[in-house]
Fold each of these.
Amino acid sequence: MERKIKAGLEFEHKADMVKKESAKQIVSETNVRARHIFNDLTEKINLKCPRCKAVFHDYDGCNALICGSASCKAAFCAICLEDCGRDAHAHVRANHGSLFDKCAFKKSKGIRAMAAVTTALHKISGESFELVQQVKNHIEKAQLVAAADNEGGEVGANKSRRFLKTAKDALLRATKNDRLSILQKPENYRPGQSRLTENDLSPRSSIPEDFRVTMTDMGNKIYTLRLECQIDDARWKSIALDKVKEELNDRRKVEAISNLKQGIKCAVIAFEGYGGLFQTQHAKPTKDVNLEEDQICISIMSVSTNGSVKGDMDDLHLNRNLQVIALNPNQRMLKLEKHVLRADESELMFESLRHLVGDGDPIAVFGEILRPVPATYNQLNHEQQKVAHPLKLKTAGEVAGPPGKW
């Protein structure tokens, strides 16, 4: 029995050892291959004389270069590395402008490096995860991508553009999500497939059950608003829009309809009997129209599955009388969306924010403190003075952001 058990354990141990050795072999082969791929990549990125392939890193002065190898002496362009025979000056002037534009050299070098990295990663994209990750690790440690950005001469501008794109996408996504927040489960929203009920709507956006809000289409984007509150099981009472708080102050959830006329001018609305949501926007009536106290002029658009808006009221075929069952005012979010879509980059990337993301040189916020330093400051030793005076610390800076406590 002892021999049988021992033999079984030894067999399992040997099998485990074989598996481990096999795994080590695979890892070792992956590491070697990843290193070869990385070496080939760096070889392609290296700057070389187009004729003798001698490697060079940088140069001073003119972009019309001459190879430093005594046996070569090829004249070539520093920007595109084209062999120009005995003199590259004419080529540089004709194709790249100034002979001393070092930024053009750095930019072209960065573009070539980035293209080489992208091509190398694309070639191995279908191979094992371990190999791809090993190559990426080598690239990251060598900072080849960062070097490519820096050599491109636009690292700061690239950071600003990446930050701006990310910020715009996030803000636009927020406005779309805000429209769908009127629903309890926005992920289930399918316009037109089924009618929305109170169970589909968020309680914070729903019109309280003892109130009734009706919009009557008068034509030309003009709607008459009617607000009613329930007196008992059979009776409803009409309430003037400007007297809601005065007459219904003791009613539960009166805040939901207290500013109804203003809120409904720019809001996401759910109508009874419809399966979709609708976005309203304030519109200007024609000059010959004088709106009455209970009338508004709005345009209505449908809300799609992802929260964006499409179409206009003329395409929606809505009934003349519409009962509002949920309302989510979103005027601020629409203003934000318009600003993000229309604003120029310079308006969104103000100076302080540009510096924060690493674009541009830091600037001094102020050079001196106007408030006099107290006499006791001179009684402190050097180390204490460094702590006591912000200009000694040199940590004073401009903070851009919403107001709040610090």
Amino acid sequence: MNLISSGPVISFENVNFEFMSENLRTLKDIRQYLSNQLKDIYQQREINALSGILIRTATGIKKLHHLYDPDYVVTVEQSALIRDMCKELETGKPLQYILGETSFYNCTIKLNSATLIPRPETEELVDLIINENHGYSGNIIDIGSGSGCISIALAVSLPESSVTGMDISSEAVLLSRENAILNRVKARFIECDLFDFNPADLNNAGIIVSNPPYVLNSEKKFMRSNVIDFEPHTALFVSDSDPLLYYRAILKLSEKLLLPSGKLYLEINETMGKPMSELLESAKYSGIGILKDINGKDRIIKGIKNA
């Protein structure tokens, strides 16, 4: 895993340790350094969590008591790597992009600039599907699969199922295939356009899931700069004039691909619960339910396709 940007190879021969390390010889030094450098960007509790991750990444420390031993001595190379990662954090770049991966529902998911960082709310979506479909052995389609996190987590937890993810981004599709190999699942990923796709290219499914773009353009001003500056806007935002654009397209595709009595699970904008319910009702879905996320916001809608 490449943790720092590519560049000239640095030789540590004949390097002044005092200069290179900026006196970052122990874990106590490093934690203090990170607190000072990141205090204007993150709260202290976030800095503490980031410090633990950076230290583990740079040093390979696995034992908890070593991780918190203030006198644990690091090498010059480890100190330099921590400083490099800290510099990237200072730009606002999310840690997940710096590390090139994240954890999602007990799966390791590689990330790049073409893919969103998976959110805890999306883990809640996955958890709901798994809990409501134990032993499911049919087809699952994940529309707008991105990094493949939803598809892969479902494939791991519902091993008798057959999961297919579809996304318009070729980069995302290639990465999701890598993630499937990394997590040893047989999820399939295809590149296609939701708005110009032949349903005959996929087998019918008993479950369709999607986490499409649903953040309104007008909501950008309320979002943190590390999201706006680094995450792919095409996977996040939708026009205020047509906030249900992707959901209508998903329902249109589901007319052909979702089996009678099949289940539809969608992550939604917290302000769109009522219009989404009306949309599913107009498409003749039953058992429509809106579930709140851990923060008490409308986040998931589900429904059953009538026969």
